[in-house]
Specification:
The protein is of the alpha/beta class. It is built from 9 helices and 20 strands. This is L-idonate 5-dehydrogenase.
Length: about 350
């Protein structure tokens, strides 16, 4: 079967890999769609993402959906043909967490995540035609949510988790810095959670247009305009350390900044003085707990992620898909792979 495999920085191939068989309490998902994430792009461009460094070939992809193809021994209450997306996380070792982290399984010290080089051997991902997963990783898609949209339940879950890290956003004015796919989904998640207005800022006009279709009330092109001032609640979704000084200055005194954009794992200069003098609460947001389930429900209730999907490629054109996703001049937002 075919798989999208990164062998090193700039070296992406569509390889033939062995077929898979499900074990007890596992199923095979015939993967239909995958969404290219920023971490996939980082492995492709740099051979690393954050602190995870590529040391061997890795099947990419953790935003996937398809249909149940085969059942492992003893599997019950799952039907072949059911449309499903997949929770990408597997906790390694003792799942117990200290009381202060109760329920925050995304902060378990050892988590294998589909398409991640954080461990050796790496955890192969879902950009493959047939994927073995545990039954408890399945999130069955309801009527009205097809597998193409279902593949975006994972990044929507990331956005919903970020919004929840901010507390109650109802009737609050929000700024989102960065209108890439996660930023645009934070826009949608904030509106879904009851935010009064959402302003989104970026340097790319095409990304701002997508963010507006996802629910942004105001867009700011920071090449020609300044960020708004004194915003009580800000989401930083660009991951650009050079932007942090301006973003922190946009946060109101005593306000909150939620960092959802993935920051680099190496030293980077940033102007952080306003963090202290404005007494800003700076909150990290990492992946999600089970907000992927809430994302599926939100899509079933009408949250529309289709404006985010700007380009579609077949599996054999995965290299071109990565190149388009990496080049903002293409107008790309979420680039989708048809895997089977």
């Amino acid at each position: 079967m075919k798989a999208v495999v990164v062998h090193g920085a700039g070296d992406l191939r569509v390889d033939e890999v062995d077929e898979v068989e499900p074990g007890p309490d596992e199923v095979v998902v015939d993967v239909e769609w995958g969404g290219i994430c920023g971490s996939d792009l980082s492995y492709f461009r740099h051979g690393a993402t954050g602190t995870a460094v590529l040391t061997e070939p890795l099947v990419l992809g953790h935003e996937v959906a398809g249909r149940v193809g085969r059942l492992g021994p003893g599997v019950r209450d799952v039907e072949v043909g059911q449309p499903t997306t997949v929770h990408p996380a597997t906790l390694v070792g003792d799942p117990a967490l200290p009381e202060r982290l109760a329920g925050r399984t995304n902060l378990h010290p050892y988590v294998r995540y589909l398409g991640s080089a954080a461990f050796v051997p790496h955890t192969h991902g879902g950009f493959v035609q047939h994927l073995v997963v545990r039954v408890d990783q399945l999130r069955v898609l309801p009527d009205g949510v097809d597998t193409k949209r279902g593949a975006l339940a994972e990044p929507l879950g990331v956005a919903m988790h970020a919004v929840r890290r901010a507390g109650d956003v109802r009737s609050r004015d929000v700024l989102v810095n960065g209108a890439g796919p996660i930023g645009a989904l934070v826009v949608a998640a904030a509106k879904e959670a009851g935010a009064r207005t959402v302003t989104v800022a970026d340097v790319d006009a095409a990304a701002l247009r997508v963010a507006r279709t996802m629910g942004a009330d105001v867009t700011v092109d920071v090449r020609t305009a300044s960020l708004p001032e004194d915003v009580e609640l800000v989401f930083e979704a660009s991951g650009a350390t050079g932007a942090l000084g301006g973003v922190l200055h946009a946060v109101a005194r005593g306000g909150t900044l939620v960092q959802v954009g993935n920051l680099p794992g190496t030293p980077s200069p940033a102007a952080l003085g306003d963090l202290v003098t404005r007494e800003i609460t700076w909150v990290g947001s990492y992946r999600f707990v089970d907000e992927i389930t809430d994302a599926v429900a939100a899509m079933a209730a009408g949250l529309d992620v289709t404006p985010l999907m700007t380009h579609t490629f077949g599996i054999d054109d995965a290299l071109e898909a990565m190149q388009v996703a990496a080049d903002r001049s293409t107008g790309s937002s979420k680039v989708m792979l048809r895997l089977s």
